[in-house]
Amino acid sequence: MRWPMVLVVVAASGASSSCADPDKAVGFDDKNPAARLRAVRQAAQTEDRSAIRPLIQRLESDDPAERLLAIRTLERITGETMGYDHAAPRHERDAAVRRWADWYSAGSEDPPG
Question: Would you tell me the crossing angle of helices 33-46 and 64-78 to the nearest 10 degrees?
């Protein structure tokens, strides 16, 4: 009679341990840089338009590799870069991020540009 309860506990512990595995975590807001990069890569592979907002936020990352992947993913999804260069000085990147944010805030379904 205890087997169903044991199976539930084992299944639940397996599910939680796989979510906690930093080598498999995926999330734009994760503290682990690899998890953030996996989230960007997943958005690129699926051309996920719901990922546009977090991708715009990743353009402000301190990590140039993360910024590069984010802008290439935005370009893949929308066809635009809005003049963003991941290696540009901070003030130039900030101006391009504002253009992205303004476009996103306007709620346009059309690609920017």
Answer: 20
Q: Are 40 and 69 in contact (CB under 8 A)?
A: yes
Mean pLDDT, the chain, integer: 83
The 3-state DSSP class for residue 15 equals helix
- Reported as half-sphere exposure (CB side, CA atoms, 13 A), residue 37 has a value of 11
Phi and psi, residue 20, nearest 5°: -85, -10
Dig out the tokens for 97 from the structure: 């991020």
Per-residue pLDDT tens for 48-64? 999 999 999 999 999 99
* DSSP letter for each residue of 47-90: T-GGGHHHHHHHTT-S-HHHHHHHHHHHHHHHS--TT--TTS-H
pTM, entire model: 0.75
